[in-house]
Amino acid sequence: MQTLELLVSLKIPDVTALTAASAIRRRLGYDEVLKELRRSDYYSLDLNATDPLAANGLAQELAEKTNLFVNPNKHSYEVRSPQDRGGGPTPQEGLWRVEVLVTDAEGAEADDIQQALTQRLGYSEQVTSVRRGILWTLLLTADSAEEAREIAEQITVTTARDQGVLVNPHFQAWEII
Amino acid sequence: MEDSTEGRPRVALIQFPGSNCEWESQRAAEAAGISCDIFRWNRDPSGLVEYHGYIIGGGFSYQDRVRSGVIATKEPIVTTMFEQVTEYDKPVLGICNGAQVLVEAGLIPGLEPGLVQMGLAPNYPDPAGRIGDFCCRWVYLKHSCPAGRCALSSQMPADYVWPVPIAHGEGRFTTRDPQIIAQLHSNDQIVFQYCDADGHIDATREINPNGAMENIAGLCNPAGNVLAMMPHPERASFIRQIPSELTNEWGQRKRQAWGEVEAMQQPGPGRLIFESLRQALLVAVH
Fold it and tell me: What is the band of B3 on the pLDDT scale with cuts at 50, 70, 90?
C-alpha cells in the first residue's frame, strides 16, 4: 500500500484565507510576523499500487477524472508523498514555512468520498482509505524553527477570545508540520 | 437611560457582514416592547455603551469563514460588548450564529469568561442523507432550568415545551472536557434541550437534530444574563409564523387564526424569549 497526499487549492483568491490572515494580523497582533497564509483542502489517500510511480499516477487520475476532489475551473492541485511535507526554512533568512493540518477530532475519514470511489466509480480495489482535512501553510518571521512552530501554535488554537483562529480544540484536531 | 420617546429599554442588535436575521429579530424584539437598533459592526464600538443589552442574531457572519462565529469574535465591537456584559451584567441574547459568536467569545458557558470552553461543531450527518448536514426544520425545546434561572427565559415556566425552528449546519454543542458538562448540570446552565412534543428527551436524531451533547439547544452563563441558543425564537414570535400542521396547541391556534390578520399577529411561543429579554433590560436600566 502507498499513501499519498492530495492538496487542492483555489486558483481564484481564497477569501477564507485572506479573512483569516486579516484577523490574525489586525486583531491578534501578528502584523509583522505572518507574511502569508494559504489554505488547501487536504486528502490522504491509501492506495493499492505496486510502486510509488503507479500510486502517483493513480492519485493524478483520481484528481483529474472523478470530479470529487478538483474543479478544474477554480482549483489547482498537487500530489505529494508524506515525506515531502513542506515545513521548514525558506530561502529567505528569518522566514519559516509551517504547515498546520486541521482535521475533525472525531475522525478524519472521508466516508462519502470513499463510498463514491469504491461503489460508484469502480475503485474498490485501488483505494482503501480516504481521510480529509484543511492544510494551512503559514510563512512566518522567526529566529528559529522552534519559535516559528510556537507562533504557529498560538495563531492556530483558539483557547481564548483573543487567541488563535484556525482550530477550536473542542471538536478539531491539529498537527503542526 | 430609558428611551425618552417610547419609554422602552434599548437593545443594540449587532450586525456583522453576513448577518441575515436582523430585521425579523428587530421586529420580534419591538413586538415585546423593546427599542431595538441595528448596530453595524464597523461603527465606533463605544456607541454600544449607551444600550441596556445586546442581541447577536442569526446568519453567517463573515460567511462562516474558517468556522462559524470565530472571525466576528476578534472584532473590537465584540470586545466592547464582552466588557459591558461581564462588568455591568448587561443581558445578551445570541441566536444561532449569535450563539456561535458567544461560544467562540468565551461568554458561553462562561465558567471562566474569555476562555473558549466549548464548541459548536458541525452537525452529525443526517441519517436520511438530506442536503449535507444542514438542519432546517421545526423542533421542540424543553425549558430545562428552573424558572427564573436565566434572565433571558425568565418568563417561561420550568419544563415548558415549545416549538421553534432551527436552521444551522454547525450547531452541535460539544466540549472535550467532561467536567464542563458536569458543571453545566450543577449550575443549571442548560436552559433548553431538544425534546419531542411531549417533552421527552433522548439522543435519537429525530429529537436531537444535530447530535448535541445532552441535547443542548441553549445555554446560559453562570450569572444567567447571557443566553446562547441555536433555534430561532424570532421565527416563532407571531402566530402567523407557526406551521399549521403542528398537532399541539400552537398549531391549533394557527388554524384558528386563519382569515384574521390581527389574530395572525398574536404572540407565538418564541415571544417569551423577547419578553424575558425586556424584563432583563429593565433590570439593567435600573
Answer: very low
Sketch the domain layout of chain A as residue ranges. Answer: 2-176
Q: Count CB neighbours of B33 within 10 A.
A: 17
> How confident is the prediction for chain B on average, in pLDDT?
94
Q: Determine which of B16, B67, B173 to mutate to test the interface with A (most A C-beta atoms within 10 Å).
A: B67
Residue B252 phi/psi, 5-degree rounding, is -65, -45
Q: How far is B113 from chain A (nearest CA, A)?
A: 9
Q: Do B66 and A160 touch (CB under 8 A)?
A: no
Q: What is the DSSP string of A25-89?
A: IIITS-TTTEEEEEEEEEEEEEE--SSHHHHHHHHHHHHHHSSSS--TTTEEEEEE-GGG---EE
Reported ipTM: the value is 0.93
**What is the number of other CB atoms lying within 10 angstroms of the CB of residue B206?**
11
- Compute the distance between CA of residue B81 and CA of residue B66 in angstroms, rounded to an integer: 22
User: Contact B243/B138 with Cβ under 8 angstroms?
Assistant: yes
A113 vs chain B: nearest CA distance in angstroms?
13
| B20–chain A Cβ distance below 8 A for any pair | no
Does B134 have pLDDT greater than 90? no
Are A160 and B74 within 8 A, CB to CB?
no
Helix (H) or strand (E) holding B58: none
Q: Say if CB B228 and CB B120 are below 8 A apart.
A: no
Give residue-wise pLDDT tens across range B71-118: 999 999 999 999 999 999 999 999 999 999 999 999 999 999 999 999
Q: Which fold has domain A2-176?
A: Mth169; Chain: A , (3.30.1280)
Cβ <8 Å between A170 and B62: no
pLDDT digits (tens, 9 = 90+) for B13-24: 999 999 999 999
Question: Average pLDDT, stretch B142-166?
Answer: 97
Taking CA atoms, B21 is separated from A16, B55, B59, B61, B269, in Å, by: 22, 11, 6, 11, 18
CB contact under 8 A, B82 and A161: yes
C-alpha cell at B57: 442574531
> Which of B62, B82, B116 minimises the CB distance to A158?
B116
User: By three-state DSSP, how is residue A97 classified?
Assistant: strand
Q: Is B18 an 8 Å CB contact of chain A?
A: no
d(C-alpha B132, C-alpha B66), whole Å = 18
pLDDT at B213 over 90: yes
